[in-house]
Amino acid sequence: MNHRDIQTRLSEMRDAARLMEIDNLVWDRLNTPAEKMEWESREKYLQSCPPGNQIVAVIGDEIGGYIGFKPPTPLPSNAHVLELNIAIHPAYQRQGIGRVLMDALVRLAAERGVRKLSLRVLASNPGAVAFYESCGFAEQGRLVEEFWLDGQYVDDIFMWRKV
Predict the structure, then answer these.
(1) Among candidate residues 128, 80, 78, 139, the one with its CA nearest the CA of residue 102
(2) CB 129 within 8 A of CB 30
(3) What is the pLDDT of residues 65-100, one digit of tens each?
(4) Can you tell me the mean pLDDT for 21-27?
(5) What is the pLDDT of residue 37?
(6) Domains (ranges, CATH) in the chain?
(7) Where does the N-acetyltransferase domain start and stop, copy by copy (predicted)?
């Protein structure tokens, strides 16, 4: 897929069903310590992920993925930081959408005066760790053996990058 075929924009109310579908398909025991992602309702989803708190990747008429972002706390002293999460629909993975979304978030963050992006990733997900490193993220901390998943202890890695 050519990166020019991927358009990005802020999420809108009309995107909720597709974003919920992507969450249901993507999040599992390999990439999150939470139980399988199943949203109770559209309303619950929108309370947790309000429109405008994600950048979506649009290919034709389809949303192929998103990158979500929010301040880590409501404290004004922490407003220069955004935490992020990213999910790409399985049909669109490994086609450059993640990179396009990350680049769009970096631009948006810079426009908003954000200085730091941060995220958490399981050590049992080396593909994600490598992707984040290729986007300029570095490890800033690690909670060793933080989760017991599928019969083994898994580290929770904190990563960051400057905007």
Answers:
(1) 128
(2) no
(3) 999 999 999 999 999 999 999 999 999 999 999 999
(4) 90
(5) 64
(6) 3-162 (3.40.630.30)
(7) 6-163
Write out the H or E segment, with its range, that includes residue 53: none
More confident residue, 2 or 76: 76
CB 98 within 8 A of CB 86: yes
The owner of tokens 């909720």 is 16
Residue whose entry in the numeric block shows the structure tokens 């935490």: 83
Residues contacting 14, CB < 8 A, separation 6+: none
End-to-end CA, the chain: 27
The DSSP output letter for 34 is S
Residues 6+ apart with CB under 8 A from 65: 22, 56, 57, 86, 87, 88, 89, 92, 97, 98, 101
Q: What angle do CA 96, 110, 27 make, to 5 degrees?
A: 40
CA 73, CA 154: separation in Å to the nearest integer?
25
Contact between 10 and 51 under an 8 Å Cβ cutoff? The reply is yes
